[in-house]
Design a protein that fits this description.
four-stranded antiparallel sheet; Dna Ligase, domain 1; about 35% helix; six-stranded antiparallel sheet; 13 helices; Rossmann fold; alpha+beta; D-amino Acid Aminotransferase, Chain A, domain 1; 3 domains
Length: about 375
C-alpha cells in the first residue's frame, strides 16, 4: 500500500472526528416552544433553487421534531412580524444573500442563521470581496469590471439594447489587463446564471456575454479564467471548521446551471485526492477567507487549484501560489445535488444533523 493511501486513510479518520465538535444544541429543549421560519423563494434569478433548498431544510426540521413553517418570501417583510421566533434563511441571490433580509431581521430582532449584514453584502459582491482578498494577500484571479449605468449614460439611456457597446474597446482592455481565456459574469449573481467562458479573442462573443451578464446585475466582472481543478471547501460552526474538500468535475467541462442541478451531469470526488499538506493549506486558506469577510456559522469557499504554469507567484510557498480563490458563498445550496451536504456526509453528518447544526448557530449579529 502506498504512503499516499495510508495518509488518505488517516485523513478520513480525521474527517470522521469532525462530527464530535458539534454536541451543543441549545434549541433542542425548545423545539415546540419556538416557531422556526424557513425563508425561501425570493425574487432573484435563483428563486427555484432557493425553493428546493427551503423544502429540504423544512422537511429536515420536521423530521427532527421542530415547530417549523416554510415561508415563500416575495418581499413582504411584514409577513414575518409576530409569525416566527427564529429565521432559517434559505434565500439565494439578490435580497437574500446580499445583507438585505439580514438587515430586516436585525430590525425585527429575529435571530437568523448564517452571516450578518456586512459580511453577506461583501461576500455577495465579487468585486469587493476580491479586493479584500488581494489586500490580505490571498490569490484570486485578476479582473476588470464594466458598469451598466456608465455605458447607458453615454447614450442618454436611449441604448437599452447596448447596440453601441464597443466590444473592440473592451477586448483591448482585456488583452491589456488580464489576457485570455476569460470568464464573464454578473458581479452579484450565483448558480452560474449569466456566465460565459471565452477561450480566445472574439469581440462578437464578448459583446453577447457582457449583454447577457448585464441582464442580472448592473456590474459585470470579466475575470481571468484559471485552468485547473475546481474545488470547494464547506465551513460550518460558530468556531469555523472546514469539511472535506470536494473536487468538482462537470462532464461538459463547464460547471453551469445544468451541471449543478441535474443529477449525473457532474462527478464529485469527496474528499478530493490531494496530498495532505496541500489539502491542509487549502482548508486553512478557505477558513481565512471566511474569517476576513466576518462570515458566521456557514459558508462555502470556491477555488481553482491551478497548474503550476498558471500560478501567480505571490508566495514563497509554491503550493500557496496554486490556490486561486473565486468566491465565498454565505448561503450555499442545500438541494439534493448541493455541495455542503455532500461534504458533511463524508464526515458522518447526515442532512438532518447538518440542518440542526446550522439552526443552532442562529443569532443576531448587530
Amino acid at each position: 500500500m502506498s504512503n499516499f493511501n495510508l495518509k488518505e486513510k488517516d485523513m478520513l479518520k480525521d474527517y470522521l472526528k469532525i462530527k464530535e465538535n458539534f454536541i451543543d444544541f441549545p434549541l433542542r429543549e425548545k423545539k415546540q416552544e419556538i416557531k422556526i421560519g424557513v425563508i425561501a423563494g425570493g425574487v432573484s434569478s435563483e428563486r427555484e433553487v432557493s425553493l428546493s433548498t427551503g423544502r429540504g431544510i423544512y422537511n429536515a426540521l420536521l423530521n427532527l421534531g421542530y415547530n417549523a413553517c416554510l415561508i415563500d418570501f416575495t418581499g413582504d417583510i411584514l409577513s414575518l412580524i409576530d409569525r416566527i421566533n427564529v429565521a432559517f434563511i434559505a434565500l439565494h441571490g439578490k435580497f437574500g444573500e446580499d445583507g438585505t433580509i439580514q438587515g430586516f431581521l436585525e430590525l425585527l430582532k429575529i435571530p437568523y442563521t448564517g452571516s450578518g449584514v456586512l459580511s453577506s453584502a461583501l461576500a455577495m459582491d465579487k468585486v469587493f470581496s476580491k479586493k479584500i482578498f488581494k489586500y490580505e494577500n490571498i490569490s484570486t484571479p485578476d479582473f476588470i469590471t464594466l458598469n451598466k449605468i456608465d455605458i447607458l449614460k453615454k447614450s442618454n439611456f436611449n441604448d437599452k439594447k447596448f447596440l453601441g457597446l464597443d466590444a473592440f474597446k473592451i477586448n483591448s482592455l482585456v488583452n491589456e489587463k488580464i489576457g485570455y481565456p476569460i470568464i464573464v459574469k454578473p458581479n452579484r449573481g450565483g448558480s452560474s446564471i449569466g456566465v460565459t467562458i471565452i477561450e480566445s479573442e472574439n469581440p462578437d462573443l464578448l459583446k453577447e456575454a457582457v449583454i447577457e451578464a448585464f441582464e442580472y446585475d448592473n456590474i459585470v466582472i470579466i475575470e481571468k479564467f484559471i485552468r485547473g481543478r475546481l474545488l470547494t471547501v464547506s465551513i460550518i460552526g460558530q468556531k469555523p471548521i472546514a469539511l472535506p474538500i470536494i473536487e468538482i468535475k462537470p462532464k461538459s467541462g463547464f460547471y453551469d446551471y445544468k451541471s449543478k442541478y441535474t443529477p449525473g451531469l457532474t462527478e464529485y470526488i469527496v474528499p478530493a485526492k490531494i496530498e495532505e499538506e496541500l489539502a491542509d493549506l487549502i482548508s486553512k486558506t478557505a477558513i481565512k477567507c471566511h474569517q476576513i469577510l466576518d462570515c458566521s456559522s456557514l459558508s462555502r469557499v470556491d477555488l481553482v487549484l491551478s497548474d503550476s504554469s498558471n500560478s501567480m507567484g505571490l508566495y514563497k510557498d509554491k503550493s500557496q501560489n496554486l490556490i486561486n480563490i473565486l468566491e465565498v458563498n454565505t448561503i450555499p445550496g442545500m438541494t439534493p445535488t448541493s455541495l455542503v451536504p455532500k461534504a458533511a456526509a463524508a464526515c458522518g453528518i447526515n442532512f438532518d444533523t447538518l440542518v440542526e447544526i446550522i439552526l443552532n448557530s442562529a443569532s443576531l449579529k448587530l
